[in-house]
Amino acid sequence: MRIKTSMPSEQFLDLCSETGVQGVYPDFTIDYSKINVASGPLPGVSDVIATPDLATTLVNLSWDTTIGVLGVAGSETDILNIVAYNETNKLCVMIKSLNRSTGASIVELPEGWLGDEVHIWAYMSSADGVYNSDSTYVGLTQL
Q1: Which DSSP category does 113 fall into?
Q2: 3-class DSSP assignment, residue 5
Q3: What would the pLDDT profile of 3-40 be if each residue is shown by its tens digit?
Q4: How far is Cα 119 from Cα 136, in angstroms, rounded to an integer?
């Protein structure tokens, strides 16, 4: 299952201003690691590694499939969601990927992003879409 949607840059920037803005005017910076793109009681995803294919906009992802016991009970059928933000063109995409139990996935980011730096977050959603986990900042990667 791979569903890709765009998040309006205004919505993403709202998230940035709530938690990620650092500094004093006029020298503001954004600490992307402090931005939560999702929150909820579902057990989150950990040890996420994003490895870009340097010739394409494909990103190989791997994660720990262990299910924590805090909050709402997790399931092997929980779905990994990826949020990617390209700072250069101010575009954000969300991709629903594979089930928690697979532990690996390949996601394709927009073609025009090749060569750009991209911030990536990951979070889990229950298969029925009712619950989310808190997001995890995966990091900044060069496509």
Answers
A1: G
A2: strand
A3: 444 444 555 555 555 555 666 777 777 788 988 888 89
A4: 11
